[in-house]
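sry for the spam today, last one i promise. struct tokens for design, 315 residues
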């Protein structure tokens, strides 16, 4: 009996030791900027709904969203699972301020359906007609300002640019005549398509641009390379599922976004055709375009060290 008790105690001790040795990121969340707000984050909703984390042996039970910017980076760095997805400007700012982050995958290949619209009866027919006019972007040093600057440079357009505080605020400014053109993320989702029309799309001038990337704490990645590879594989599998099953993906969108707006059925096919979601491969040219946009708005005063981009976890 004494021997049995000793074996039982030894087994219990071994089990306790095993439990305490589990990694701190167990049952944690992936940090993703604009989750369930921006359609770029849809692969993570698909991964959760389809049980892809569990299928890859990962104990991840949710996604921690944020309004973007430095909040997402802080969430990533403070998390037991220091891995997530964020806009390039926020990532680069954090890296150049000393954060030990690595860019490990590209999240998007382009800006999808981002476009600048005008009023239906406006006299402007092409982007050249905006010369000397007032063109809106969302926030100073935002992705919309950066890509607008790149487009203006490529189109040789000299126009007045104004921040409006957001997409919705830009529409209000357009309605009130405070600006002549304003950005919208998905023209098909305009609140009243009869009032506006698309003047130009980003894809006409910048067909490839990486504005969102996956990042991880470099020390965590070094200690847990297989975990990082699995997380990227989960997202890649989700993107593949979205392409193969657009109808089912739309249902997941409705659930995660808490909406029943059927117009996503028009958006999804166009984004799939545009190869909007990246499977993870990093397009260095597309990333360079975004970095150039940062330079144009004064958000990048020195080149990004190429060593912060690590493709070793992609396959």
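last one done:
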């Amino acid at each position: 009996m004494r021997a049995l008790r000793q074996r039982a105690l030894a087994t219990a001790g071994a089990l306790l030791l095993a439990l305490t040795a589990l990694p701190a990121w167990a049952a944690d969340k992936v940090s993703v900027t604009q989750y369930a707000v921006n359609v770029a984050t849809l692969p993570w909703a698909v991964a959760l709904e389809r049980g892809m984390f569990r299928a890859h042996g990962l104990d991840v039970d949710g996604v921690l969203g944020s309004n973007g910017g430095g909040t997402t980076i802080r969430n990533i760095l403070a998390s037991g699972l220091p891995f997530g997805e964020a806009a390039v400007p926020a990532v680069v700012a954090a890296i150049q301020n000393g954060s030990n982050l690595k860019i490990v995958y590209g999240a998007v290949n382009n800006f999808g359906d981002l476009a600048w619209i005008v009023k239906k009866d406006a006299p402007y027919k092409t982007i050249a007609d905006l010369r000397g006019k007032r063109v809106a972007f969302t926030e100073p040093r935002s992705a919309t300002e950066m890509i607008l600057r790149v487009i203006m440079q490529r189109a040789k357009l000299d126009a007045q640019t104004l921040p409006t505080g957001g997409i919705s605020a830009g529409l209000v400014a357009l309605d009130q005549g405070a600006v002549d053109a304003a950005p919208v993320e998905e023209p098909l989702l305009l609140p009243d398509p009869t009032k506006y029309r698309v003047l130009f799309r980003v894809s006409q001038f910048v067909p490839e641009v990486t504005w969102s990337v996956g990042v991880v704490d470099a020390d965590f990645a070094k200690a847990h390379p297989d975990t990082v590879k699995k997380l990227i594989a989960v997202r890649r599998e989700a993107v593949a599922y979205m392409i193969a099953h657009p109808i089912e993906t739309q249902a997941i969108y409705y659930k995660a976004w808490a909406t029943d707006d059927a117009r996503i059925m028009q958006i999804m096919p166009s984004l799939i055709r545009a190869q909007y979601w990246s499977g993870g491969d990093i397009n260095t040219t597309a990333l360079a375009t975004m970095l150039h946009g940062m330079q144009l708005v004064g958000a990048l005063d020195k080149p990004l060290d190429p060593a912060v981009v690590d493709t070793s976890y992609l396959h």
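Confidence is low (pLDDT under 50) at residues 1-26. ok im logging off now
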